[in-house]
Amino acid sequence: MGVKRVRRVGTTGALVAATLGASIVFTPSSASAVSDWKCFGTEVQRCATVWRDEAADTYRARAKITDLAGGGSYQVKVTNVKLLRFNGSENVPVRTAADTDGWHATEDWAGTTAVDPCDWDQSFSVVATFSWRGAASGEKTWSPNVSWVDMCS
Known about the structure:
Blueprint: E1 6-12, H1 14-20, E2 25-28, E3 38-40, E4 44-53, E5 58-67, E6 75-86, E7 91-97, E8 107-111, E9 123-133, E10 138-142, E11 146-152
Antiparallel strand pairs: 1-2, 1-11, 3-4, 4-5, 5-8, 6-7, 6-9, 9-10, 9-11
C-alpha cells in the first residue's frame, strides 16, 4: 500500500490568466492551514474556499455568509454550493450541495461532501449562491477568482 501525499497551492486568477496568456501567481498554503477563505462584501460578507481535511487528504467546497455588525440588519442564506474542477477547457461540477435549510439571523454555512483530489489532475474552485434580505435585498452567485491545485505524490 503506497502513501498518498497532497500538497496544496492556491492560484490567483489561474483560469483567467491561462486563457489570456497572463502570468499565474502561485501561493503555497501554510502547512497548518485547513482553508484559505476568500471574502467579499462590507455589510453582508460572502466567503468561499476549497476546504482541505489534512487528516484524510480530501477537499470539499465551503461557503458562508455573514451579516456584519454596523451594517444593515439582514437575514442571510447560502445555497447551491459547488466544488468545481477545471478539466482543461471548462469548469465542471465534482460535488454539489443544495443546502435548503432556509434563512438565518446572522450567519449561514454550507458545504459539499469530500473528494480525493488525487482522483483528478486538475485545479479546484468553488461557487455558491448567496442571498440576503432586510434593509435591502439581494442575491449573488459568486466565486472568488482563486483556484486550488493539488500535487499528489
